[in-house]
Amino acid sequence: MNGYTQDDYLYRRLGPWPQPSPDHPHGKAPAVVHIPPQEQRRWNRRIGRRYVVDLLTLWPKAAWLSFTRPRYDRLSNEAFQALMVEGIYTRFLVPTLDPIDEERFAPLLADRGPDTRFYKLDFSPIAAVKPLPGMYVAASVVLVRQEGEGPLSVVGVWINDLLLRPSDPAYDLAKYFVMQGAAYGILFTVHPNLHFPFDTVNAITKTAVPTSHPLFRLLEPHLSFQLALNNAVLNNRGTVIAENPKVPYAPFTARATDGLMAFFTAGYHGIAGNSAYPPYDYVERPHETEGLYNAFLRAYYPPFLTFARKVCEHIPKHDQVVVDWAHYIRRWIPGFGGQRVDQRCEPFDIFGDDTRLPEVLAGFMWDVTVAHATDHQTFGHDIGVYQHCLRIRVPPPTSVNATFDPDAVVWRRDLFRAHLAEWMFFIPRTISSLMNAEYHFEEEALCEAAAVFKDELRAVEERLAAEGIPRYMELYEMSASIQY
Predict the structure, then answer these.
(1) Is residue 81 part of a domain?
(2) Contact status, residue 209 vs residue 325, Cβ threshold 8 Å
(3) Which of 343, 232, 242, 275 lies closest to 99, judged by CA?
(4) Is residue 144 part of a domain?
(5) H helix or E strand, kind and range, residue 62
(6) pLDDT confidence tier of residue 25, bands split at 50, 70 and 90
(7) Interhelix angle 320-330/198-208, nearest 10 degrees
(8) What does the alpha-carbon distance between residue 336 and residue 404 come to, in Å, rounded to a whole number?
């Protein structure tokens, strides 16, 4: 026996727990819907109230901007290429072309040298969306070429059964649909995997780990606000993913039940036969994906791993608390602890090697801080409304020579909604920062490890420029947990 009593746990072991997602139990991550009252009250006070204040005070600014700047950015081919291959959208870069991609892009793939590599950015899940009257969507796939170690370049787009090159007249119209597909892809496939699968880790840690345990004290600063926020996003009637299209801050092109949920299932359950959408696996280390944005995210991971290793040195081998914690989580989250999706019922040991436990801890902390916050900064603040193209009111091209009226692409009322949504939900609004996180360790060695951890994070930020990596987000602006 470990000697713990109910009073040693945050909620006396009566706290939150994961369950199948209410609206899509087989296609979405497990959900936590029974939020402890004190957590819900804190969220209402610190975040929910802000939403109300924003809605009441920011609408004049949204109206003014949508009136004075009533059209989306008409990006040059160079600016469009930079948007696709230099920032957050490189998270979609896949080095494997499927047979259907080889067929679609055959004319562009024929001319290749020994050092030529091709990638794709696949935004096809939007094909499942049934847009509101007067609006349009179109599935698109972007072909990216690289020569040796040279820069990435966009060489073609497949859209509406057309292969378009940057020189084609219809390419200008296609760019809007690609930007739309990329924005929805971030919002509903890639970014949700930084939110919802980790609710399981959050809830089980709060319920099943004593508050004095080093594991709890390591994760505690990174657990605040997440459960209430994610539950509000998925299940609150006032969510930005509104079923009622008249909600003034709902900027999307369809109701939630008219295809938007297909994005979630594509990102979590995967799409069979599409290399861009594998089933979800728990992220213990950042993916080795091309692009400076991904290099920025990876640069911050080693300090988290070093810190987690130091803490794990103070956890006895086969500690029953940690063994139980890992088994509880593993039942719900594919890939947790390194097991494949189809191995969740097989024997499992979180202490099976010296890297397994530190990596699952580092993956969680890095995800809910650096990866999550930087996504919001780059998508909400740096890209913004005029390149998200969430609503499009002209049909996609039907020929390589198609033309369109730029003034007809979006209406002012669409931009008004998009501005409100951006300020309320997309841009980062940090309450407690990563660099101000407090770890209440009892062991002096772990207190020192926490200080070293923050020194190492500062060192990463200082050396980014020397490594040619843009500073996509300031370290001191990164949140300590999922707060937006």
Answers:
(1) no
(2) yes
(3) 275
(4) no
(5) helix 49-68
(6) confident
(7) 150
(8) 48
pLDDT of 364 higher than 80: yes
Q: Using 50, 70 and 90 to split pLDDT, how confident is the model at 132?
A: very high
Q: Is residue 223 domain-resident?
A: yes
Distance in angstroms (rounded) separating the CA atoms of residues 435 and 451: 10
CA distance 208 to 204: 6
Q: Please, is 70 exposed, middle or buried when counting C-beta atoms within 10 Å of its C-beta (0-12, 13-18, 19+)?
A: middle
pLDDT at residue number 343: 52
> Which domain, by its residues, includes 53?
6-74+193-477
CATH number at residue 235: 1.20.245.10
Instruction: Count the domains in the chain.
Output: 1
DSSP per-residue string spanning 382-451:
II-HHHH-----SPPPSSTT----GGGS--HHHHHHHHHHIIIIIS---SSBGGG-----SSHHHHHHHH
Would residue 175 count as lying in a domain?
no
Instruction: Dump strand ranges (E) for 297-365.
Output: none
Q: Give me the amino acid identity at 476.
A: Y
pLDDT value of position 342: 55
Q: How many residues does this entry show for the chain?
A: 484
Annotate 112-132 with b (16+ C-beta within 10 A) or e (fewer). eeeeeebbbbbbbbbebbebe
Angle at the Cα of 333 from the Cα atoms of 327 and 334, rounded to 5 degrees: 105
How high does pLDDT run on average in the chain?
94
Tokens describing residue 460: 């990463």
Token pair in block for residue 244? 């009622």
Contact in structure between 281 and 327 (CB atoms under 8 Å): no
Return contacts of 433-439, CB within 8 angstroms, 24+ apart. 433/476, 433/477, 433/478, 433/479, 433/480, 434/369, 434/370, 434/373, 434/475, 434/478, 434/479, 434/480, 435/475, 435/476, 435/478, 436/480, 437/221, 437/222, 437/480, 438/221, 439/217, 439/218, 439/220, 439/221
Burial (CB < 10 A; 0-12, 13-18, 19+), residue 310, is buried
Quick one: pLDDT band at residue 347, thresholds 50, 70, 90? low
> What does each C-alpha distance from 337 to 221, 344, 359, 367 come to in angstroms?
22, 10, 8, 15
Paired tokens of 459: 């060192």
